[in-house]
Amino acid sequence: MPVFTGGASGRGAVTAATGHPREEALGYLDGVPVPRARLDRRLAEMRDGDRAAMLPAPDSPEGRQLARWLAQVILTEQLCAAEAEARGLPLNPRRVRLDQRAAVEYGSINAAAFHGSPAVRAVADAVTAGVSIADDELRRYWTATARPVPARWVLRHRLGDGPAGRLGPVGAADLPAALADALRGAAPGDTVTATDRLGRHEAYVLEVLPAREPDFERDRPALRPDLLAARRRRAFAHWLDRARAQRIRLVPGLEHPGDPHQPDNHHRH
After folding, report:
1. Does the pLDDT at position 230 exceed 80?
2. What does the longest C-alpha to C-alpha distance in the chain come to?
3. CA 141 to mean position of chain CA atoms
4. Where are the beta strands (DSSP E) in 12-108?
5. β-strand pairing of 152-159 with 165-171
6. If you average pLDDT over each of 89-98, 109-118, 162-171, which comes out highest?
7. Which conformational region is residue 149 in: left (phi greater than 0), alpha (psi within -120 to 50 degrees), or beta?
8. Is 110 exposed, middle or buried (0-12, 13-18, 19+ CB in 10 A)?
9. pTM attached to this predicted model
10. DSSP character at residue 20
11. 191-196 vs 199-209, strand pairing mode
12. What is the pLDDT of residue 268?
């Protein structure tokens, strides 16, 4: 095993995974070192937390990949902190939880940084403030995806002697066929019954949502915010990619976890 004793460079022991000296920086932002101590502290907090048992051993390939991943999160946070300061952006400490779709679109590194850092959220708002969607784009998306909406019901449903529970909105495809047939033509306030192999169904109709055909003018107000949010996420992810490429330098042993040249980026089955 190689040995490194330190010296004027300020580096410590050789890392077991790569044979490279362990840098005292986890990376460089605009040429300035970001202290490795920040990564060590965050890893220690994770290993002292409620999910510590789920984490890989520190000296395993998976443990080293976790360190690489967390280093990218911290560097992204530091990049945005510097950008927010340069732009004079106000920071709101209130956390914003991403839904599953947004987290997937961002990717795990960007999503973790966005969730944990007010500066990342502030920069995201600033750099995507000018993003927009034209009506013709909305119409093309609507034309490709719009489908008729079948009739749906909001029910208080009881099966046999069991407790009654609220259901809905549910369509015929969500219900036992016998109950769906019995509900056709029912109005709010009606009680319908049906029997099948599961037993006797009793449903009190709270609300009926009639079938409707797609209508662009009606659907447009609800469609725009969803598509605009997705476009802003994509624009911010691209901005981060460019900014990291221009302003961040990684160190040996803390490469991007997806870098095919680092030794732990492989699959085992």
Report:
1. yes
2. 84
3. 23
4. 25-29, 32-35
5. antiparallel
6. 109-118
7. beta
8. buried
9. 0.74
10. S
11. antiparallel
12. 52
Q: Write down the residue that tokens 């802003």 correspond to.
A: 232
The 8 Å CB, 24+ separation contacts for 171-180 are 176/201, 179/203
pLDDT band, very low/low/confident/very high, at 51 (cuts 50, 70, 90): confident
Q: In whole angstroms, what is the distance from residue 213 CA to residue 77 CA? A: 46
Tokens found for residue 48? 């002292």
In the 8-state DSSP scheme, what is residue 79? H
pLDDT in tens, 73-85: 999 999 999 999 9
Euclidean distance between CA atoms 122 and 91, whole angstroms: 6
Amino acid at 174: D
Three-point CA angle 102, 105, 108, nearest 5°:
90
- Mean pLDDT of all residues in 241-253: 96
